Amino acid sequence: WSGQLGAVPPAAFAGPSATVALDLDLTRIAVLEKSFYNETGIALGTTDIVVRPTVHVRGFVDGVPVDDSFAPSLSFHVSGGVLTPTSGSATGAAPVSLSAQRTGAVTRATPETATMSILGRGIGVGTARAIGLTGTVVAGTLCVAGWSWVARRRQMDETERIRAAYGHDLVPVSASPAAAARLVVEVGRFSALARLARRYDCMILALEHPGGHAYYVECGATVYRCGVEPGGRPSLVALAAPPSDLTYHVSSLPSAS
Fold first, then answer.
1. Separation of alpha carbons 245 and 225, rounded Å
2. Can you tell me the distance from the alpha carbon of 198 to that of 94, in angstroms, rounded to the nearest whole number?
3. What is the Cα–Cα distance from 167 to 170, expressed in whole angstroms?
């Protein structure tokens, strides 16, 4: 059974110490003992007074915030109006100490740059993240650009695709060189005609006419042609065989006089 006899308002430290004064009316103990006997029918017996100061510490230690409290207890035995300090132990054999202390510690976090190894060389994590982010942005940009290029290619017709891929090799002409050629070889695909131009180091002649487009590679007396000739189908036949990796067909020979 316990009760509070008194309390004091908070007091600030003056340097390393703080002083408070508390008046205790010991006659209230007899009133408490009588109240206890009336409620329980048992004498209170031994009466102790416990003084418990509570110290709050707030501040900074080397830049680290500290917020802690310390509440040691000091017990007194009451007998005939006399207060006798006690150790608080069950046997009372322990010495009475009027000085209480407690140690503590603060933890200060010290930042340290994390590193990782790439190809045997150390690199900061922040740098690695920046490189990874840059690579992601570049890869995303390339993917978008590639997708746009493919989408544009799909929307082009064959003539536009040829111009986009081989525009720097095309030389516009106003008339078909096949009309005056001794030998015309018909090439089935423009890619094969482009390989012929690279093999013989020739330019690709491009003729645009109302019926479509025709492309030519002149190699000596032979003209290799791909596309639609003005006025319809070609009128010459191939007398010499083109390279074996090319697709071609022949038409007709000019009549000999």
1. 16
2. 108
3. 5
Q: Which amino acid is at 32?
A: L
Q: Please, which residues have CB within 8 angstroms of residue 183's CB and are 6 or more apart in sequence?
A: 221, 222, 223, 236, 237, 238, 239, 240
Question: pTM above 0.70?
Answer: no
Tell me, what amino acid is at 244?
S
Over the chain (257 residues), what is each successive 10-residue block's mean pLDDT?
77 82 77 80 78 84 83 80 71 66 79 72 76 87 82 71 82 87 88 89 89 88 88 45 47 43
